[in-house]
């Protein structure tokens, strides 16, 4: 039996066999649409981004031979390895300061050609930072994002996917969290044809703490996938994983797989993961698979939960009984359902933009084909 921690890893595409769609990491994914990123040639050149200079935060392009490349993790699937083999330079974002440093990085204009990208985010010792990576426009993109949180640092990384309707985006996020350091990772996926964001977090030193949040809204024919892995490898580490999604329309499909490993070396670990899905119409499908591996009995707590269901009729009745239309009542319920995650972003302006995008995606159930 293969455990999550024993998956094969390599930075070379050729080390992985050809993907058939029957593999454990690909069996829920629309392989035909992803084939150009899994097997094809990718443009690994530098890409354009927009941002505002922020004191305490540096941004630079570094060579693929830079010592920071590979600090947080190594690919576990062929698409991630293809992106790793193809990128020419990595975008390195470094936070170094004891005040909270905020940086918003906007990426668009990737033109829809098959591309690879590599980003490295480093929070230096005892630094504090809030980084927002906002994606929009056309995309056929496979990328790797490395996140290094050094001892005593406190970092929030928000990844927002608001691509064009035909965009395809595969991303592996690797994080390494040091002693008494904290990482908050928030993924918000709203627009695009296929979006697959897989965060993997390694808690390597005592007192490391991670919070992983995800919000997603899938509409007709859209596929949104997340495969989460938290590796507790040191004593007194803590993790909280909460992903919530709403689905509307025939063929809307979401996948959430949550793997948590508590190693024998991780005495005193406290871990909990949960996934909630709200199905707004017939014809939508949500796959939710929590997995928990525990190799020591000396833990503070460990648990998981998963639930997928339709609207609560009593909630709708309560709102309609107070003069609110059914359509508006549905909007209010979905907003409230996803608000727990959106509010974790920490940026009021971005939060309002995302709430507006969620509302605009909601249409009366009868309008869905």
TrEMBL record:
SUF system FeS cluster assembly SufBD core domain ranges (all copies): 116-337
Q: What is the lineage of its organism?
A: Bacteria, Bacillati, Actinomycetota, Actinomycetes, Micrococcales
Give the protein name, as stated in the record.
Fe-S cluster assembly protein SufD
* Family according to the record: Belongs to the iron-sulfur cluster assembly SufBD family.
Gene Ontology terms describing biological process: iron-sulfur cluster assembly
Record InterPro entries: Fe-S_cluster_assembly_SufBD, SUF_FeS_clus_asmbl_SufBD_core, SUF_FeS_clus_asmbl_SufBD_sf, SUF_FeS_clus_asmbl_SufD
Listed SUPFAM superfamilies: Stabilizer of iron transporter SufD
């Amino acid at each position: 039996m293969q455990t999550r921690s024993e998956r094969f890893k390599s930075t070379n595409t050729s080390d992985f066999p050809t993907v058939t769609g029957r593999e454990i990491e690909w069996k829920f994914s629309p392989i035909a649409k992803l084939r150009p990123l899994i097997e094809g040639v990718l443009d690994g050149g530098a890409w354009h981004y927009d941002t505002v200079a922020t004191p305490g935060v540096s941004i630079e392009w570094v060579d693929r031979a830079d010592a920071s490349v590979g600090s947080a993790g190594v690919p576990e699937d062929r698409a991630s390895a293809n992106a790793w083999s193809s990128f020419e330079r990595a975008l390195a974002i470094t936070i170094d300061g004891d005040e909270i440093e905020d940086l918003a990085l906007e990426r668009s204009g990737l033109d829809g050609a098959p591309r690879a990208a590599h980003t490295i985010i480093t929070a230096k010792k005892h630094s504090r930072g809030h980084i927002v990576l906002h994606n929009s426009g056309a995309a056929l993109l496979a990328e790797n994002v490395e996140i290094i949180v050094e001892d005593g640092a406190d970092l929030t990384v928000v990844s927002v996917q608001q691509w064009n309707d035909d965009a395809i985006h595969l991303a592996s996020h690797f994080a390494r969290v040091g002693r008494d350091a904290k990482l908050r990772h928030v993924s918000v996926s709203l627009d695009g044809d296929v979006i697959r964001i897989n965060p993997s977090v390694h808690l390597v030193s005592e007192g490391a703490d991670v919070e992983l949040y995800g919000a997603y809204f899938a509409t007709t024919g859209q596929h949104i996938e997340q495969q989460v892995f938290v590796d507790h490898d040191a004593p007194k580490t803590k993790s909280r994983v909460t992903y919530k999604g709403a689905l509307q329309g025939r063929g809307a499909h979401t996948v959430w797989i949550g793997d948590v490993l508590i190693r024998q070396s991780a005495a005193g670990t406290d871990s909990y993961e949960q996934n909630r899905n709200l199905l707004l119409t017939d014809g939508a499908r949500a796959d939710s698979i929590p997995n928990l591996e525990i190799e020591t009995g000396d833990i503070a707590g460990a648990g998981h939960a998963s639930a997928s269901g339709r609207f609560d009729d009593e909630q709708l009745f309560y709102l309609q009984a107070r003069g609110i239309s059914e359509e508006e009542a549905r909007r209010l319920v979905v907003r409230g359902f996803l608000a727990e995650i959106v509010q974790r972003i920490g940026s009021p302006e971005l939060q309002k933009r995302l709430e507006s995008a969620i509302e605009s995606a909601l249409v009366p159930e009868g309008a869905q084909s």
